Amino acid sequence: MAAVLGRVAELPALLALCRSPLVRRWDPAAPGRALEWGRYFQHLHGRCRARPRLREALGRRLRRAQPRPPALGFSALGRCPELLGLALLENRALPPAACRRLLRCLLLPASGAEPPGLALLARRKAAARLLEPPRRPGDTEPRVRAEAQLLLGRLREEEEEQEEEQERARWLCGVLERLPPPRAFAVVAAALALLGAGDGEQDGSGPDGDGFCAGLLLSWLLGNLERFSAFCLCLPGSLLASLAGHYPQLSRAYLDLLSGWGSHLHYDPLQGRWVKSCLEKAELSWEELRERFSCLCRGSALLREQTQAALKLLKTRDGDFEVRGLSVWTDLLMEVEE
């Protein structure tokens, strides 16, 4: 067992090597040897998957071997041929002869069967990058949608492996933090939209799997107020209203955020309009805030009622004025009820 644990601990280093410039020294046979190690780890995954104690020991040893996130978990052992093959395919330092041998290994495996994981990756990557259809107003960018579907697929794999909740959360956080924030927010929003519309299910895992994926994504998003604030500033009000209609916990947090932003507006009688009282804290202008609340009120009947109830409560707390220019909540409520 000690020897097996030692080999597993070498996987992060092998994957890093496949991504590094050092592969320029590889001979044509080296990629084949790397894929052989990948198949060994995949076989080990199949042998230990139904044995919780072994699975936990292998996952723990693998995590200890990685200095920084995103950490590979036990489920990564089952995808080792794909992980190593994709790392080498994307590494431009790989010599031409070694690259040709790698392609032969991937396209013409010894068993004569096509490697399904790599074929699926290739099809999705081609669809995302080369076959993008013309966009219609309001459509999700095809590449973002493809990335969201890939993310949901990996989250479902994590659920099937039955690993610890904290490990799944660490994995998701590590993956999303590798993307620029606007891109990460767009992918998360697209994934939540797919789940909310019932389109995220592609592999038969059912509603429970969708609930698991949505829960992880919402925990990542709502677990940090600064992150959630940036998410809401980055995305259009119509998309946020659509997500709020599907996820009550998101709608509550979004309304609280809008309420906080609105409290930093004050009425300027000389200009005859609401302006930012503190430029550092008031994230939205009056026009932007009105548009966000209007989008919420154009949503479902339940979301409209929830939004109006929140505005009425804020209006009451602010003095329950019925005249414009005295309370931002009075004015917003009049705007959305017109």
SSE blueprint:
Elements (H helix, E strand, L loop, with lengths): L1 H8 L1 H9 L10 H19 L3 H13 L15 H10 L6 H12 L8 H14 L12 H20 L3 H13 L3 H17 L8 H17 L2 H10 L2 H10 L1 H15 L2 E4 L4 E4 L9 H12 L3 H17 L10 H10 L1
Antiparallel strand pairs: 1-2
Helix pairs in contact: 1-4, 2-5, 3-5, 3-6, 7-8, 8-10, 8-11, 9-11, 10-11, 10-13, 13-14, 13-15, 16-17
Description:
- The protein is an all-alpha fold and 338 residues long.
- The chain has 17 helices and two strands.
- The protein has a two-stranded antiparallel sheet with strand order 1-2.
- A hairpin with a 4-residue loop joins strand 1 and strand 2.
- Helix 1 packs across helix 4 and helix 9 crosses helix 11.
- The longest helix has 20 residues.
- The N and C termini lie far apart (71 Å).
Comma- or semicolon-separated keywords:
two-stranded antiparallel ribbon, 338 residues, elongated
